[in-house]
Amino acid sequence: AERAGAGWRRRPLGKAAALKAAGLHRVTVSLDGLDDAVFRSMNDVDFPVADVLAGIDAAQTAGLGPIKINMVVKRGTNDHEIIPMARHFKEVRDEIIAERDERVRALHGI
């Protein structure tokens, strides 16, 4: 069985175009930083940030949007990634939602 997200990494534009054709308009992406080590440690994944960025680019190319980027910020883990994320996504004018880890824990009773 194909692991979730694997199709996006191999054929991001094809997947994005198919989703657009099926009627999808908005896309929300969870991305906690642009640094590979931070991204992998926070998400327990074995693929680089470049794959996520390629998927975002493919979604834009396919006409999906707006694209919302969710970033969970954990003090001492990825808080240094806030400014690089804001600068990167300011260029593409996507919406960034940054949530502090304490707020997320409180909301989810963690």
- Which parts are unreliable, with pLDDT below 50 for 5 consecutive residues or more? none
| Strand arrangement across the biggest beta sheet | 1-2-3
The secondary-structure class comes to alpha/beta
- Binned, the helix content reads 40-55%
Beta content comes to 15-25%
Gyration radius, rounded: 14 Å
pLDDT averaged over residues: 80
H-E order: HHEHHEHEH
Shape: globular
- Annotation, overall tally of beta strands: 3
> How many strands, what sense, and barrel or not for the largest sheet?
3 strands, parallel
How large is the count of helical segments?
6
What is the distance, rounded to the nearest whole angstrom, between the alpha carbons of the first and last residues? 31 Å
Summarize the structure.
This protein has 6 helices and 3 strands; from the N terminus they run H-H-E-H-H-E-H-E-H.
Walkthrough of the structure:
This protein is of the alpha/beta class. The mean pLDDT is 80. It starts with 5 loop residues before the first helix and ends with a helix. 17% of the residues are buried. The longest helix has 13 residues, at 49-61. 50% of the residues lie in helices and 15% in strands.
